[in-house]
Amino acid sequence: MRFARFGAEKIVYPTPEAGLCVGSFLVIEKKGRILFGKAVKPEFAKGKWLLPASHLKYGEHPDDAAKRIPKEQLGAEAQNIKYRGLWSFAVLHWDLCFVYDVKLRNEPRVIGEAEASRYPSDYFYSSQLFSILEYLQPEKAKNEIGRGHDEVLLAAGVLKS
Question: Model-level pTM?
Fold first, then answer.
């Protein structure tokens, strides 16, 4: 069991062995469908449908990550970002998930390994790459949605249990 200190009183709370992940997740909707990418990376999610998402860089505000993700993962620019909510899960590790509704200024496109490698090493932080981008009805893809991303969609009310 690990422990983390929070607040001025230095109160100690237990945290899962695998630690804590803090990330921003994007819900990009078009004509009643949600944009998913078929994962190439990270390896544990290969072949699963994922939302555009990323861990936060140290010191990065979740809103700033929500602006960064479309450029890095979709080659697109966000024109409208609306905070949807914060959800927390503790299964393998503790996840704090900031969720945003996003409208894109331009059409998303797949970013390949070669293009991603041109970013400075600390810029392409998420290491999430997609082989395909597709707008899907979440219910029809729910058995193929990667771990954690299904929980985010359920909590946000986008996916029905």
Answer: 0.84
